[in-house]
């Protein structure tokens, strides 16, 4: 029903208008007071309707929805969808009552209708927005949408919805076709693209990030350029929020994930193994061939006992055939303390319960440098949690640094202040004095 019937108009307006005129009021005053009176009456009526609707929709229907097995209706209640729907009904009633209230001011009827139509557009936007939020919350509980940038998609839909609402509001106020507004917007498209450059780039980047599964909420990413090193807590249309390990928040433009490089640690977490890549620098001057006495002593190490016996038998057989003169140790093959230490590390980590045996496991020498000869451990732990990973790595190196002295090896370290002071105390100037 677009308008109320003429008979109703006469009864509600003409009767009160005639009564006010009989009281001696002027025509303008009677129309104005009649307008205020009817506005008050209908205002109270709309308030009662609003209260009744809220009681029925928000309270009764909302409570019933919370008791159902489905979770989607719970999200509708949580996002205030019923409250937004409750605002629509009074607005639709108001647009029917406007011709009655403004009978004495016919020139105000169209502007008032336009204003209510604008409010209806806004109210519908709020309803649709709350429904879309409910869909987002519902999809976030699905495993197939886990980590997807649903907030980015929602923001894109909201932008299009606000644009359509703006076109409808423009058309309502001006009385022109929406196509006229779109034609005018086409001329200003270059300016709009400049204004919304970041939004457009973010939208395209969000699609690429989602399609290629580059980043999900909860991923640990590292992007030194932006100072980001932590977990992704939110992916929006324009920004990605990363909570760093020091609990600070770094905000990265979404399109940076496409244009710049970053490291995603999700592969490590999914694989279930976290890499150890750390070296012990051995002082080169402590490396030597092991003597028979040292071999006898090192055989007491259970992890090396079988290896030393097997290796020694192989070396003795080879030397007997090819190097009869063994007065010079360089002739022939010999075991070294660094080689035995490397074998010990290899066997130690091989039997370690918290090192992955199905992933790369290496104990290798790196190129010697001014800091000694690095013996690097390259392997993966069975636990990827940071604190547990650090404990496993520390336990391994605690043991190796303590065991190294039994191989008559020394760990390289730069001279400390105590070393310098010791040299000064042991220095005797008289030994270097000129005899004359």
Automatic annotation (TrEMBL):
Molecular function GO labels: mechanosensitive monoatomic ion channel activity
Biological process, per Gene Ontology: cellular response to osmotic stress
Domain Mechanosensitive ion channel MscS: 198-266
Lineage top rank: taxon: Bacteria
InterPro entries cross-referenced by the UniProt entry: LSM_dom_sf (IPR010920), MscS_beta-dom_sf (IPR023408), MscS_channel_2nd (IPR006685), YbdG (IPR030192)
Pfam families: MS_channel_2nd (PF00924)
SUPFAM superfamilies: Sm-like ribonucleoproteins
Transmembrane segments: 32-53, 89-109, 115-132, 153-173, 179-196
Protein name listed in UniProt: Mechanosensing system component YbdG
Organism expressing this protein natively: Parafilimonas terrae
């Amino acid at each position: 029903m677009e308008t109320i019937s003429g008979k109703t108009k006469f009864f509600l307006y003409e009767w009160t208008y005639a009564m006010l005129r009989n009281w001696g009021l002027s025509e303008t005053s009677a129309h104005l007071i009649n307008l205020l009176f009817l506005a008050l009456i209908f205002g109270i009526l709309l308030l009662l309707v609003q209260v009744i609707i809220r009681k029925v929709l928000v309270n009764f229907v909302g409570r019933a929805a919370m008791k159902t097995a489905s979770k989607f209706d719970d999200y509708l209640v949580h996002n205030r969808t019923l409250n937004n729907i409750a605002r629509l009904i009074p607005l639709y009633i108001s647009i029917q009552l406007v011709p009655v209230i403004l009978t004495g001011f016919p020139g105000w009827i169209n502007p008032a209708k336009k204003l209510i139509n604008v409010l209806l557009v806004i109210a519908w936007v709020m309803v649709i927005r709350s429904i879309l939020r409910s869909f987002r919350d519902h999809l976030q509980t699905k495993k197939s949408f886990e980590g997807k940038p649903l907030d980015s998609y929602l923001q894109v839909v909201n932008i299009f919805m606000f644009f359509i609402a703006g076109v409808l509001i423009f058309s309502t106020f001006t009385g022109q076709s929406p196509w006229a507004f779109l034609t005018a917007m086409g001329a200003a498209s270059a300016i709009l693209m400049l204004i919304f450059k970041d939004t457009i780039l973010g939208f395209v980047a969000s699609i690429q990030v989602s399609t290629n599964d580059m980043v999900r909420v909860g991923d640990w990413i590292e992007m030194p350029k932006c100072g980001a090193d932590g977990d992704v807590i939110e992916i929006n249309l324009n920004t990605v929020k990363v909570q760093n390990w020091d609990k600070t928040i770094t905000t990265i433009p979404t399109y940076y994930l496409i244009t710049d490089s970053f490291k995603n640690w999700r592969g490590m977490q999914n694989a279930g193994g976290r890499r150890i890549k750390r070296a012990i620098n051995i002082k080169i001057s402590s490396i030597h061939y092991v003597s028979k006495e040292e071999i006898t002593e090192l055989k007491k190490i259970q992890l090396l006992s079988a290896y030393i016996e097997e290796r020694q038998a192989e070396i003795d057989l080879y030397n007997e055939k090819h190097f009869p003169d063994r007065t010079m140790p360089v002739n022939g093959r010999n075991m070294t303390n660094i080689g035995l230490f490397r074998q010990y590390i290899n066997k130690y980590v091989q039997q370690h319960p918290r090192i992955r045996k199905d992933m790369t496991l290496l104990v290798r020498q790196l190129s010697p440098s001014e800091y000694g000869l690095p013996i690097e451990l390259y392997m993966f732990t069975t636990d990827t949690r940071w604190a547990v990973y650090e404990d496993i790595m520390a336990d391994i190196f605690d043991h190796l640094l303590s065991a190294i002295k039994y191989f008559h090896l020394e760990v390289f370290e730069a001279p400390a202040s105590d070393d310098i002071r010791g040299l000064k105390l042991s220095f005797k100037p008289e030994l270097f004095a000129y005899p004359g």
